[in-house]
Fold each of these.
Amino acid sequence: MVDSLKKNSMEENLIPKLENEEKSNRRLSWAAFVEEIKRVGYLAGPMVAVTLSQYLLQVISTMMVGHLGELALSSSAIAISLAGVTGFSLLLGMACALETLCGQAYGAQQYQKLGIHTYTAIFCLILVCIPLSVLWLYMGRLLVFIGQDPLISQEAGKFILWLIPALFAYATFQPLVRYFQTQSLITPMLICSCASLGVHIPLCWALVFKSGLENIGGALAISISNWLNAIFLALYMWYSPTCTKTRAPVTMELFQGIREFFRFAIPSAVMICLEWWSFELLILLSGLLPNPELETSVLSVWYVQLLLFWIDASCTSRSLIGYCAGKPQAARVAVYAALTITVLETLIVSGSLFASRRVFGYVYSNEKEVVDYVTTMAPLVCVSVILDSLQGVLSGVARGCGWQHIGAYVNLGAFYLVGIPVAAILAFWLQLKGVGLWIGVQSGAFTQTILLAIVTSCINWENQSQSVIFYDNCRQLKQGKGYSKEALR
């Protein structure tokens, strides 16, 4: 009886302690959330500016070429779209493997591995560029073969031919971006990207309007500016003292990581490409509609903007595997913070787009028909900005966790079982034309966002936290270096 009374007394004394501790944890969680929003915003703001300045190279070239005429705009737009489908999307997707590899290496404090992984990625991506450049040589003929307008196809083929140097520059630039992003070294990327953009604007104007190259000048300007961007970052990596800890000498060890890189790069590329290709397919389908020059021009204008917002949203999600090493709660808070910032950003952006819908088209073209069509599409694009920004963050979370294969399945189902079929039905059967194509693909984006949200909600952050240690010890055991004490816990 006495023992029972003592036990009850102890439980009664313990209850308020537990309540106080729970309240304290709740306060800490809210404080951590606010702090993480500040931290993510501090990183995401400059990173968005980096992505903007880098992607604006294509946007500015499209704008300037568009003022040469409707044919120049449609041909350059379809060339840039095809360059994205067959080249840039593949390289970007493969480079995203470093979000897992570099994140794990940084979280496990294997700093030299960041440099080695980066060299391996650059070497592998340059190898991939060789067959891609051969494909680009015959792109004009391929467009005619699949039924595109011969005149548009011929001009697009010339444009993409001069983008081949940009392909190799992109293969160098994207791994370097992941190298700096993993370490939160945003300032050098911001400086280098802004410098190359500052060179690109007058260079593109001179090549398009003054050199006689016209639309080809826009492609040449993109290639030159992309190489400047890659060279600036490479020089900073090699000579800056801030990279001393992670900079590694170029040795034969980079070849040892090729198999591991492709193990993550292939599903990562599939994940990125399946989504990117669905939007590019929208541009190609628009070429089969009546008045293809108008349909292709308008959809390309809005697609350029939407892809930009999607990439920007992806930049707000941090390399979560490296960040959550031993800190599962912190990783969970980072995801919520990234989503919160993205929602606020997209509300501002979509509101601004809607408010400027009547004048936005003049940025790309002087044709009244094009401007009016751009205005009609604006409300649909505002909704698309919100959807694609959200899924951009959720996709970044999946890649950070090494779940590229799951993301690939989600994108395959969302876009190719839902989005593309709905787009084809609305555009060609119900005669909604370009509006139908856009609504259909965005139905796929909605499906994708829901599925990725479900996947993210199922993440066990405790397991993800420990996977960094486990992964690092497996690698050390393979190299005969033993294991760390954390592996025994």
Note: Residues 387 and 445 are 7 Å apart (CA to CA).
Amino acid sequence: MGDETSWLLPLIALMLVGYFALTTWLGKKGKAHSGSMKGFAIAKGKVNPAVVGMSFGASYASANLFLGVPGWAYTYGLSTLWYTIGCFGVTWLGLLLFTKTFWRYGQKNGGSLTIPQWLGNRYNSKALRVLVALLVLFNIYYIVGQNVGLATMFETVIGIPYLWGIAIGVIITVVYVSLGGAFAQIVSDGIQGATMAIVSLLLFISLLWTIGGGWNVFGTLQAELRAIDPALVSPLSTGGPFYSGFAILSIQWLLFSFVLLPHLMNKVLTVEKEEDLRTFTLSAGISLFTLSIFSVFAGLAARIILPGLSSADSAIPAYIMEAFPVVIVALLVMGLISAILSTTDSLYLGITNSIGNDLFKVLAVPVLYKNKHLTEQELDAKVLKASKVSLVFIGLVSLYMSINRPESLALLTNFGTSAIISGIAAPISLGYFWKHANKSGAIASVVSGAGCYMILTGTGIIEHVFQAMFFSSILGFTSMITVSLLAETLRKREKTSQEAVRGL
């Protein structure tokens, strides 16, 4: 791009100012809907279901799909397509299976605002609600992954120091989420999702002039990759996440269960009417397809035209610098920034809602306000304040944790999500379909599944994050079934004994 690069920093800076102005305006607009905990957490019925569906896809995409997974493609080649195809097909299948029942359960007992509250209501257990809220805190690793992705983008494209890039992302997101809550987050994500879709398509179309080959562009891409290393066109990769059929199966299980994550399933609770769920799931499916499939090909192309990058996660930023004129680069960079921030804001909202609604309300309020007889409105105001205060705290913690750059952005983002899935997959799914599911089994599943995952990854017994999650979630299902049946049997025996005593 030559001397044109001198215009890149001012262009992106101008767009960032515009972006910050837009999100701040959305935050102020959303303030009218976020005066209560319900409005702040889910903005129920305040956003069109098609926009909520687009927001779902945008929150799903993140730095992982636009930076981390193309980084895998740069390193491991075509085997990475196992991940991207699963992101659309397997995740959307999970969404279609879970949405309606999840929504119906979420309407009971006055309505649920968070996954921990949903589980607490489903199993009538405050202990389970608190345990899952603590597990949700693992999403801090996902936020750190987004911070790293944003900083990598700024550093690679326009030379902004790594730490400054992290600080910019944290400040922008915390400001507009604290102002407008779920309304600002969902609407801004819907806009960002549309921008990200355009970026994905441009990245894919660019292969026509960076790789060439016309209608045979895929053949040319495969031939070029084979010339570099035949392993790059193998369905399995040596030393990477896709090294065996079982490893790929574990990844598909992750992607199927991914839909259960708190920052995604909360979108379902935003939909006001059951008939609107069809619009929501269709919009989410289109968004997932567009945002999941196309960007990985740019990572493959980067391996051909830009060999020897020091960081695989910088493949996409480096590629767009090589493939596009400066004005388009600026637009693409803003699209990639949107991909990162659209997930970050959902994660912040999910964590802080759980801190306020499920930890502060359940654990702290009965102690701090024991004899004050708070009204519902007073209690709601205090819980809302706790959520907003925790938002700033989580932002600072994530900034601190992001200082040291990880080796793989994709592995970091999947570490925390895998811990959560290991604990909640069984209680949510069996809670739909199995009449014997009860709170004893659900608690056992959360403790054993998440505990097993932390032991396996912490000790290095299983270093593959996805396999550790697979085995841990299987243990979670086994524990829940066993303990639920045992608890049911003990209750029946106790009931029989009491009846016998009364008969005497």
Note: The CA atoms of residues 4 and 424 lie 50 Å apart.
Amino acid sequence: MSTQAAHPALLIPGPIEFDDAVLQSMSHFSESHVGPGFVATFGETLTMLRQLFQTTDPASQPFILSGSGTLGWDLVSANLIEPGEEALVLSTGYFGDSFADCLTTYGAKPTKLEGPVGGRPQFPEIEKALSEKKYKIVTVTHVDTSTGVVSDLKGLVQSVKKVSPETLVIADGVCSVACEEIAFDDWGLDGVITASQKAIGCPAGLSISMFSGRAMETFKNRKSPPASYFASMKNWTPIMQNYEAKKPSYFATPSPQLVHALNTALTQILARPLSERFQKHKEVSDKVKKAISDLGLQIVATKPEDQSHAMTAIYLPDGVQIPDVLPKLASKGVIFAGGLHKAIASKYIRFGHMGVSITDPNRTDVDKALDALKTSLAECGYTKA
């Protein structure tokens, strides 16, 4: 039995439900962020990130910074591209659009390629754009939490390398790392940014990222200094390298309690082959998608190959409104999220299915949620045609 207080199952696309041991790690006694105990934990945690991202290249550089997933955009925008340089932003929803806004804030010149609502830009149009202009970076949201659309990272890197091999490929993996496969080295990625509170299963407050040796060389060869102080790779890289080498170092104070929780979460994840974890998320996602279809409902991500294994965005039937269905779900002990994509925000809800709700065989969160959805829609007057 869980030691947590009774509460509704949190099945939004993050924060997700957390394991007892992870939460208990947060109650670690206070300690110095440069003391030997914490330095050892932080160093081990950085090394475990290499396993999670599947990189064995010593030139790859992990970062764990206090902040949300959004800080990852700043890390990319302030360090890997300079004012006036071009970025190709592949947008599949709200978060792709926001990444473009962040790049603009730092003086870069983003060009957006947008997929239709529920779809993604296709490789021929991406290759055409890359052949017409020189881009410093291509950014892609691996899973856009506003639509549940997943992008094909492996295929994207192949397309970019074919047309513009010098262009860096950066993925926003906030809603994909630890539930969708990411083979950092094998696929040739240059950067993946993520956060602690989604499939990694650690409370919110950590910006987590991995950058390739090529990306780090791009940073070192900048003509201008980074445009941020806190998000500067110049300031953070030696800190991360020292910690991973188990040497105390200081630029700004990390959160020892969150790092302990992340260490516990990564230890749990890496205790089993990652392939098993990815397969389990796929199986549960397929089950959810079938149940949604059986209810006669439409999924926002239109093609099966574009549908994330982390979450499902579900169009509500005619006559059923978000303010009607979400409270009914909550009364049955299930929390879903409302819509976020501005074009369809009032028309759909979002069901997050990742992390411990999926991998812990003692949890019934997903079955409970599917039953609650069926009952709640019926209470709203919906009957399948």
Note: The first strand starts at residue 9 and ends at 10.
